[in-house]
Design brief:
281 residues, alpha+beta, Arc Repressor Mutant, subunit A, Beta Polymerase, domain 2, 12 strands, 17% strand, elongated
């Protein structure tokens, strides 16, 4: 009988939480933390509270993309049992106490590169190391950058508010700087072809290039010429010259060995140690 009573008590606690979650959802509040639930002052232990939350997860009512951080699953996502990170990423980064912006292929999709659908959700953030990994079926990938070029991001509306997304020029530089995270230089060039319809390298971007190394700007300029966006390459070259940065000979692909007989692009001082088929882009 004791077991039955305990089971009934557990069901009652879970039902109470379920009702509270539903009430919050009706009010348009889909995201909560464990501390929010604790503030309800339920007369139960922390372990009992966690058990109740776990039961709601098992029933597909809520999901937990991060420890002690919960998202109510709206009706339109019930069949999948998971909601996209765009639904909660801003609140999650607030919860983690991090500045951030959505970046790389994920940002590219919001900046005109409509064919760049990635199987990951990529975010650039500051602070100490943060582990990337699969969260409720979606891979969250974090890139660290201590100084975020916030002036070159924008807010995009989501179902729960907004999220901060890199603008097209910041995305272009990130894609080149972090080419290993987008599938390599050929994939980076593909992304640039679509992004460049919305990028401009006028004097207003001089502050932006200050956030990146000379090597990244050189590689971006070289790629812009290769994909035949020569005017943008010229504008970027002018910005580089005005920035006071120093241009040195560097390999196009950092992880590929260089030889003395490899050609060197005179303008961008790029050692051409990697080839990709421009006709396929």
């Amino acid at each position: 009988m004791l077991i039955i009573n305990n089971k009934m008590i557990a069901q009652k606690k879970t039902t109470y939480l379920h009702d509270w979650v539903n009430d919050e959802m009706i009010r348009g509040r889909y995201i909560f933390t464990k501390d929010d639930v604790k503030n309800l002052n339920l007369p139960i232990s922390d372990q009992a509270l966690q058990n109740s939350l776990n039961r709601l997860i098992e029933r597909g009512i809520i999901m937990s993309p991060w420890q002690n951080f919960y998202v109510t699953i709206p009706t339109e996502y019930k069949l999948r049992g998971v909601v996209p990170p765009s639904f909660y990423i801003d609140r999650l980064m607030q919860f983690l106490g991090r500045d951030y912006y959505v970046s790389l292929l994920t940002a590219a999709a919001f900046n005109g590169a409509s064919h760049q659908k990635a199987m990951v959700f990529q975010v650039t953030t500051n602070g100490g190391p943060i582990r990337s990994g699969v969260k409720n079926g979606i891979r969250l990938v974090f890139t660290l950058r201590q100084n975020l070029p916030s002036e070159f991001t924008r807010q995009i509306k989501t179902q729960t508010g907004y999220m901060i997304v890199a603008g097209p020029e910041l995305t272009a530089l990130d894609v080149v700087a972090e080419e290993s995270k987008v599938g390599g230089l050929s994939r980076a060039a593909e992304v640039l072809v679509e992004l460049c319809e919305n990028t401009s390298w006028g004097v207003g971007k001089s502050q932006l290039i200050g956030f990146f190394s000379s090597a990244t700007i050189q590689r971006l300029g070289y790629l812009l010429e290769k994909i035949e966006f020569r005017e943008q390459a010229d504008s970027l070259y002018a910005l580089f010259k005005q920035s006071g940065k120093t241009m040195r000979k560097i390999p196009l692909k950092q992880t590929v060995a260089i030889r003395a007989d490899m050609p060197i692009n005179k303008r961008w001082k790029i050692i051409e140690n990697y080839k990709f088929d421009i006709d396929e882009i």
